[in-house]
UniProtKB/TrEMBL annotation:
UniProt record, GO biological process: purine nucleoside catabolic process
Single Gene Ontology MF annotation: purine nucleosidase activity
Swiss-Prot/TrEMBL keywords: Glycosidase, Hydrolase
Hydrolase recorded as keyword: yes
Superkingdom assignment: Bacteria
Assigned GO CC terms: cytosol
Transcription is among the record's keywords: no
A Pfam family assignment: IU_nuc_hydro
Official protein name in the record: Nucleoside hydrolase
Annotated Inosine/uridine-preferring nucleoside hydrolase domain residues: 11-283
UniProt feature coiled coil, ranges: none
Length: 296
């Protein structure tokens, strides 16, 4: 099949890629997708529970991925903030935040999607430094936040990506910028098993082996009970950039987050488009096929 459609979608990815073992799949999937014009990848912090240098750890892992794919130097890397905001009024200036501002202000370049696979620190900083970008054709895609309403929540509280910067989440949700949110009850429904990884990912070059083994290593080190699978919870962000129609949404009136990570109604900000269902088959099969095609 010959695909000569050269149209591309402008995107930035902000990822705490050293935090677990799922960001890596999302980043690789994006890099292997020809319709995504990746304007930069921002390594993000993931708190201080495991290291005081979490943003640096994310940068190291991102560089490792690019090296394994022989893509070093082919995509800009712009460091994000080293830690969470101290308050909703204090930005943490960084190359990553400046990249978001510069790309959002490119009025002649078409829509921009900024996918956040971790905390919203760098988006909040960009909005605090340049409030005008909330009125541009920029869409924030966030993997984070607990379920809405009475849906059952499983996991540490507050939800991990929210917990790592509640202040930043409130800045973004209160800014009026377009937000597509993938809450935890949706991103958890993306599990793959070890057997599938052994067949569909591990045989395909150095990057395939790294991705598959990373899941096993992380689970062994950090999962509290026996397990042979893991949710690739960041991958829905890539699916939404590849095909926004791969998900069904509902419109959520403005909310803010309490200090303990719960939702409450807000009188500022815009509606949130909350993903209620996503085509897992589409993005997993697309990712597996691209990894296989990429391998030697």
């Amino acid at each position: 099949m010959n695909n000569d459609d050269r149209r591309r979608r402008r995107v930035i990815i902000d990822s705490d890629v050293a935090n677990e073992a799922d960001d890596q799949f999302a980043v690789v999937h994006a890099l292997l997708s020809p319709t995504l014009d990746i304007r930069g990848i921002i390594p993000a912090h993931f708190g201080t529970q495991r290291t005081r240098e979490s943003m640096r750890a994310s940068r190291d892992e991102l560089e490792r991925l690019l090296d394994l794919m022989d893509r070093t130097g082919t995509v800009p890397i712009a460091d994000g903030a080293p830690h969470a905001l101290a308050s909703r009024r204090e930005p943490i200036d960084s190359p990553g935040a400046r990249l978001i501002i510069d790309e959002a202000r490119r009025g002649d370049a078409g829509p921009l999607f900024v996918a956040f696979l971790g905390p919203l620190t760098d988006m909040a900083t960009a909005l605090l430094l340049a409030p005008d970008i909330a009125r541009t054709e920029t869409t924030v895609i966030w993997i984070g936040g607990p379920p809405y309403g009475d849906r059952e929540y499983a996991g540490t509280w507050p939800e991990f990506n929210l917990r790592n910067d509640i202040a930043a989440a409130n800045v973004v949700f209160g800014s009026g910028i377009a937000v597509w949110q993938v809450p935890s009850n949706i991103y958890r429904l993306t599990a793959v098993g070890y057997a599938e990884l052994r067949r569909r990912v591990e045989p395909h070059g150095a990057i395939g082996a790294h991705l598959a083994q990373g899941v096993v290593d992380f689970n062994t080190a950090h999962h509290p009970v026996p397990v042979e699978s893991r949710a690739l919870g960041d991958s829905p962000a890539i699916a939404l950039m590849l095909d926004p129609h791969s998900a069904s949404f509902r419109r959520q009136p403005p909310v803010r987050f309490t200090a303990n990570g719960a939702y409450e109604a807000a009188d500022v900000g815009g509606e949130i488009r909350v993903v209620e269902q996503i085509d897992v088959r589409f993005f997993l099969e697309d990712m597996f096929a691209k990894i296989a095609e990429f391998a030697p």
